[in-house]
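User: I need a structural model of Sec translocon accessory complex subunit YajC from Desulfolithobacter dissulfuricans for a docking pre-check later this week. Nothing fancy, just the predicted structure tokens so I can convert them on my end. Input:
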Amino acid sequence: MTGIAYAAGGAPAAGPAGGLASFVPLILIFVIFYFLLIRPQQKKAKQHQIFLNNLKKGDEVVTSGGIFGKITGLTDTVVTLEIADGVRIKVTRASILASAADTRKQAEAPAKGG
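Assistant: Understood. Predicted structure tokens for Sec translocon accessory complex subunit YajC:
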């Protein structure tokens, strides 16, 4: 069997700058993801939490299931909605999606533009 030749010198070892330079693209990608995806999502979640904390009786809201109703009762976790005369349902506070007025404005905006 023939012998295997080993290179005595080999490639020079990467110094501290070489190791850091290989991580720069990964760091740059993380920064871009943070500003384009993570930060806006955190900001939106914070605004939604403030909205949920400021709910009060009489507000008209939309649930995540698409049910429009007027708030008739509130606790820390449960919201009672009147969806028709004399028809009340209880939903979790977290299932409240938005104000009904905001939802109507968004629905009318594309209709006016087209």
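Before docking, keep this in mind: The CA atoms of residues 77 and 93 lie 5 Å apart.
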